Amino acid sequence: MNAASAPFLSVVEPNAEMSIVEANLANAVLAIDACPSTAKPSIRDIHLALRNQFGHRTSPIHVACFHADFVIQFATREDRYLADPGGNRH
Question: Against a cut of 0.70, is the pTM above it?
């Protein structure tokens, strides 16, 4: 795709639903499979991996596929930080 055939996107003022989704994604992280030669993990596998690594200290409220990776959403900024301590806390 070149610039001439790329779709035109415009920025709009978010409605209430869009604002809620945006706020929820503020507590999300993008996770990739560190070993791409392994079988693609399921969403259940992601939940189990987080439980094994962090116990009950943090738990995602939503996990979704995003291309070949995963978006893992947490309820709070603190929960997200436990899973991604190198990430931005604000």
Answer: no
